[in-house]
């Protein structure tokens, strides 16, 4: 062969160099660059192929056959190695991405909703379903909103230091709210009428910490102000809530009472859903839940005192309303048979899980 065109020995070297470079490639990327070097446009074999045209006519056939055979050998070596590398890569991936199902894992407990939080959600849902809104207010509250705006007289005993926790400095007249009722006034001062709100929240009183008292406890407040609302609307609303909380056959009763911010006022009782009144006057079958009284005290309620509405600048000839507030800790106790209020404050998840297992 003439100059510039490889002879047979050189072709053999070209082929074997390509083969060993291909076999040395262990990844698809390496193999690709080896292909460019040994089969690409400027590879020795490609140059040789292009050189054929320049040969004298009688030499072209032999040279063409030799170079073509060499090129076919290189192409075959590439294809064979490509198949091997692909399989090897897949196998390596299967090994490296394998999940060992038998390895021990660390279990992180996910925690539990506090039973009071869960009950707040449930109670608020009953009202949200009727189109009411949820409102909130601060726990550190102005004495004026907690008492004066709700028609408590300046000498009302609830204001005493023995009942109410005042914040320093005392002349600021700020307290830890003793009930959720101050949110009534906050709402009336900030929202458009009509108003239908429920207020879940924490309240504080200077109480002992024992099985039946906590210095911090929880209330659900309700307030509706609209045209023509009265006692019947209140009773219907509370009946609905009681049935949703304690079951469809639950009965309620209103007992006359006094609150400065409602007139008339009442306390609401629910018929004992444990003994259904059968323990009353029946010492043989005492009931712990209602203390054999047949009824359980649930909360306070009434028709909003027009003085409260007037203090918020509302025309009491046009608007009236009803309000209620009940102890949520008590509600959990009744519903779930919890007997010691301190369990609510200790933060032991086993308590939460046990109650939730019953309640939800
Ligand atoms: N705030 C009262 C309390 O803590 C409960 C209460 C009574 C709330 C009557 C009301 C109501 O909204 O109308 O004892």
Describe the structure.
The protein is of the alpha+beta class and 360 residues long. Helices cover 42% and strands 19% of the residues. The chain has helices at 8-24, 28-39, 44-51, 57-96, 115-128, 143-146, 182-190, 231-246, 306-311, 328-336, 342-346, 349-359; strands at 133-134, 140-142, 174-176, 195-204, 216-227, 252-259, 262-271, 295-304, 319-327. A seven-stranded mixed sheet has the order 1-4-5-9-8-7-6, with helices on both faces. Strands 2-3 form a two-stranded antiparallel sheet. Helix 1 (8-24) packs parallel to helix 4. The longest helix is centred in the first third of the chain and has 40 residues, at 57-96. The protein starts with 7 loop residues before the first helix and ends with a helix. The mean pLDDT is 92. The structure holds 3,4-dihydroxyphenylalanine. 3,4-dihydroxyphenylalanine binds at residues 179, 181, 221, 259, 262, 299-302, 323-325.
Supply the key terms:
binds 3,4-dihydroxyphenylalanine; 19% strand; 7-stranded mixed sheet; elongated; alpha+beta; 42% helix; two-stranded antiparallel ribbon; 360 residues
Which spans have pLDDT < 50 for at least 5 consecutive residues? none
Question: In which order are the strands of the major sheet placed?
Answer: 1-4-5-9-8-7-6
Largest sheet descriptor: 7 strands, mixed
Average pLDDT figure? 92
Number of strands: 9
Q: What's the gyration radius in Å? A: 43 Å
Work out the helicity level.
40-55%
Specify the structural class. Answer: alpha+beta
Which series of helices and strands comes N to C?
A: HHHHHEEHEHEEHEEEHEHHH
- Terminal Cα span: 93 Å
Count of individual helical segments: 12
Molecular shape:
elongated
- Which ligands, by name, code or SMILES, are bound? 3,4-dihydroxyphenylalanine
Strand content: 15-25%
């Amino acid at each position: 062969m003439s100059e510039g065109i490889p002879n047979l020995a050189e072709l053999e070297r070209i082929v074997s160099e390509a083969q060993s470079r291909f076999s040395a490639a262990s990844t698809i990327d390496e193999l690709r660059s080896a292909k460019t070097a040994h089969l690409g446009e400027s590879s020795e074999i490609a140059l040789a192929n292009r050189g054929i045209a320049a040969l004298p006519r009688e030499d072209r056939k032999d040279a063409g056959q030799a170079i073509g055979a060499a090129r076919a050998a290189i192409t075959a070596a590439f294809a064979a190695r490509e198949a091997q590398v692909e399989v090897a890569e897949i196998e390596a991936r299967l090994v490296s991405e394998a999940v060992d199902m038998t390895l021990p894992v660390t279990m992180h407990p996910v925690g539990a909703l506090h039973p009071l939080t869960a009950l707040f959600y449930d109670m608020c849902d009953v009202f949200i379903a009727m189109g009411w809104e949820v409102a909130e207010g601060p726990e550190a509250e102005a004495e004026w909103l907690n008492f004066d705006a709700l028609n408590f007289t300046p000498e009302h005993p609830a204001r005493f230091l023995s009942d109410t926790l005042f914040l320093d400095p005392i002349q600021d007249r700020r307290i830890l709210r003793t009930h959720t009722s101050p949110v009534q006034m906050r709402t009336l001062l900030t929202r458009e009428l009509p108003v239908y709100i429920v207020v879940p929240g924490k309240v504080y009183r200077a109480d002992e910490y024992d099985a039946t008292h906590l210095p911090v406890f929880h209330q659900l407040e309700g307030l509706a102000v609209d045209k023509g609302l009265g006692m019947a609307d209140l009773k219907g609303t509370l009946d609905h809530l009681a049935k949703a909380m304690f079951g469809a056959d639950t009965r309620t009763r209103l007992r006359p009472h006094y609150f400065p911010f409602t007139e008339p006022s009442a306390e609401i009782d629910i018929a004992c859903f444990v003994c259904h009144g059968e323990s009353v006057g029946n010492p043989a079958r005492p009931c712990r839940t209602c203390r054999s009284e047949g009824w359980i005290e649930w909360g306070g309620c009434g028709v909003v005192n027009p003085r409260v509405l007037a203090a918020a600048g509302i025309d009491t000839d046009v608007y009236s309303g009803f309000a209620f507030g009940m102890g949520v800790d008590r509600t959990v106790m009744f519903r779930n048979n919890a007997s010691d209020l301190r369990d609510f404050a200790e933060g032991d998840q086993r308590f939460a899980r046990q109650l939730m297992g019953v309640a939800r």
